[in-house]
Design brief:
Residues 236-386 form the AAA+ ATPase domain. The protein is α/β, with parallel strands linked by helices. The chain contains twelve helices and 15 strands. The protein folds into two domains: 46-122 and 133-171, no CATH class; 174-385, Rossmann fold. Helix 3 packs across helix 5. Bound molecules: adenosine-5'-triphosphate.
């Protein structure tokens, strides 16, 4: 064994001397060509190939570089031997990064890959109006040649998705309301927002543990169900009915759901909605990854009209703004009334084509006022009783 190492060291020494001699003897162009040829020959016989993800793509920032950086930072702290740590001004969170020229292994769908953070000094610059940083940064991905197609097709998309989720979790979440009743402002934004900070989580929520588990499982399945919704042709949305006496934890449950999913919340105040088109506009201005809350839906039901509902036909005109009803009519001059049934079915209608990954939560403190036939004709994905 000792002889093997001695021979190897001698061989490397001879190679190094040979290269030094060639470097002196050969003109730089020939030397560069010989070096390139050697690299190509080595690559040909190697079972690996390499992909560079540089930070700058010409003059633009490479979005893939940012995504890889974010993705690696989510697990780099557990496995890398050398880390680069950063913390932004006024931030309480430390960001982990891969130190220069450090490698980290990852496995995607059983396929092993390796990332290396490559930082090289930039050659002395020719004059440019645009200042360039002194060093070039990038990630080098090492993959087996036989896995190349699979990794390039699926793994990079997976990284982009993961990075988007991390970005989403890091950003300040908002609670939106239309309760100020303003019409579209100059930017066409009908919602007012405040930072959403609610302490309620599924850990703090007093609820039957099994029920809690069911809800969390349902929510988790929803967030990863894009493909399933695509296959069935349905909109990527979910509808829950939350019912229970006042003060029994409906709002706390909604906050716990939003905190669990890192979603924004939109509280739709129906008394401020004047027409169907306004409702449509409000819904279209909600963002993806959000919970849309429609509170006290029992206030939309006029019991006197229940009996008039056609048996098999579509329920109509359930909203009836009687004198005792504090809500305003959702009607414009063109008989544009929003019915209770429509409100339940809005997520399934034409609107669904432009709204994805949204959860609708309807709440009521008077479940008994809701017509079972109506709920049957438009079933909720889950009915949750809080008590
Ligand atoms: N199941 C629960 N778990 C944790 N906290 C609860 C629960 N129920 C009520 N609370 C507490 O009681 C207060 C009122 O609860 P919450 O606002 O969630 O009730 P609500 O059903 O939404 O009431 P309302 O129908 O009047 O809007 C909150 O401060 C909340 O912390």
């Amino acid at each position: 064994m000792k002889e093997f190492w001695t021979s190897l060291v001698s061989l490397l020494g001879v190679l190094a001397s040979l290269m030094n001699i060639l470097k002196v003897v050969l003109p730089p162009e020939a030397w560069f060509a010989a070096f390139s040829f050697l690299i190509r020959a080595l690559n040909y016989f190697s079972s690996y190939c390499y992909c560079d993800v540089t930070k700058m793509d010409g003059v633009n920032t490479n979005e893939l570089y940012n995504a890889v950086q974010l993705y690696l930072s989510s697990f780099v702290s557990a496995s890398a031997s050398r880390l680069s740590l950063t913390r932004a001004i006024n931030s309480s969170a430390t960001t982990f990064g891969l130190s220069n020229d450090v490698c980290i292994n990852d496995v995607f769908d059983g396929v092993a890959v390796q990332w290396e953070h490559v930082v090289t000094q930039r050659q002395s610059q020719t004059f440019s109006w645009q200042p360039h940083p002194d060093e070039k940064r990038g990630f080098r991905l090492r993959i087996r040649k036989r896995d190349k197609d699979f990794i390039l097709n699926s793994y990079l998309d997976y990284i982009m998705d993961k990075a988007n989720n991390i970005r989403h979790k890091n950003q300040q979440r908002l609670l939106y309301t239309n309760s100020l009743g303003r019409t579209l402002d100059s930017r066409g934004q009908p919602w007012d927002s405040v930072p959403f900070k609610h302490p309620s989580t599924f850990d703090t929520l007093a609820m039957d543990p099994e029920r809690k588990r069911d809800i969390m499982e349902d929510l988790s399945n929803f967030t990863v169900g894009q493909a399933l919704y695509g296959q069935t042709g349905g909109a990527w949305k979910r509808r829950y009915l939350l019912y229970g006496l006042p003060g029994t934890g409906k709002s706390s449950t909604i906050a716990a759901m939003a905190n669990f999913l890192y979603y924004d919340i939109y509280v739709l105040e129906l008394t401020q909605v004047r027409s169907k088109s306004e409702l449509l506009n409000l819904l279209m201005k909600t963002s993806s990854k959000s919970i849309i809350v429609i509170e006290d839906i029992d206030r939309l039901v006029n019991p006197s009209k229940r009996s008039k509902m056609p048996q098999a036909a579509t329920p109509q005109s359930y909203y009836d703004p009687g004198p005792s009803d504090s809500m305003r009519s959702l009607e414009d001059g063109n008989n544009n009334t929003i019915t209770f049934w429509e409100l339940l079915n809005f997520p399934d209608g034409l609107w669904s084509c432009c709204g994805s990954e949204r959860i609708f939560i309807y709440t009521t403190s008077h479940f008994e006022k809701l017509d079972p036939a109506l709920l049957e004709s438009s079933p909720m994905d889950m009915q949750i009783c809080v008590s």
